[in-house]
Amino acid sequence: MTSVLGQVIQFSLQASPASWAGLFDHLEVWRSSLGADGPYMEMTAESWLPPTIPADLYGQSPPPVPVTGAQVAVSGLSLSLLLDETTALTVTFTGTNPLTFHQAATQIATQCGGLVTAFVWTDGRMVLVAKEPGNKAILRITGGDAAPLLGLPTTEPDTVAYGKDSRIELLTSQQIYPFVDFHGDSSFWYKTRFLQASSGNVSDYSLPFSVNSSSIVDPSKVIVGTLDLVDARGVAVENREISISVKFGGNVIGAVGVIPRDIRGLTDENGHVEFPLLRGLQITMAIAGTQLVRDITVPADPTLPNFNLLDPGVGGNDVFQVQVPNVDFVVRRSL
Question: Comparing C-alpha atoms, which of 193, 226, 255 is closest to residue 314?
Fold first, then answer.
């Protein structure tokens, strides 16, 4: 049996108040173990939650009137569970066959000594819930001939459940938020999304990022360069490639050397793209399909959380001079 314990990975998530103020108040964190294209599962929830099987019933309480459920011949059979990859629990069902799902759930809770509870959901499914909340906690079904009779999964990944952390509350006085994945992996991908808790309104997802694509320098030394593109009708230009290249000048940030490397990104459905960049760097930005190429000095002002890559104040030497028409307008965009 292979352990599902992973690496402890610490993230510094950047959420500038300009991106969410007045629209959202919480940040969700999602993870994919199968690549950048997903599928993704949320690692956060409205409140801290314990590992739950099946996965679509996280946060659900037992029905006020217990559900009897189906009758199954599980007396004499067993169910094997593992908590946090350290505590093995074995439930051996007793009594006269057949037992109802409710009777089986009661025996699971009793024999696990409160470390795992069980109940029957309104649709008749058996639900297992570990005691401890948070994404550090793990509940795993490791075997037992009773599992399939109780409608419980028997193959991974459905046999493994992780707890969830509370969604991150956003503060106007803060732009960097720490988050820890206690069971991560260098191959995993992550993305975030803003949420308005009272209404349920959500933003678009961020671009996927991995451990390998995350910055290892102090987050205060990073600023986000943004760009928004529209066509002549004012319609957002989606999937336009923007490239950033670093001019090599022997730059050192703390004890970390910065070498030339092209960074590319595509505009999203709102014509928007973002690049985390080290403050003070000399870079060149180019927009595919145009002849616009800019030499840019990334702002070093530590009070600025982000900047516009087309701001005339940060660049020059455009093949075509960046034009800023004197037109009054307001753009409202949900991030």
Answer: 226
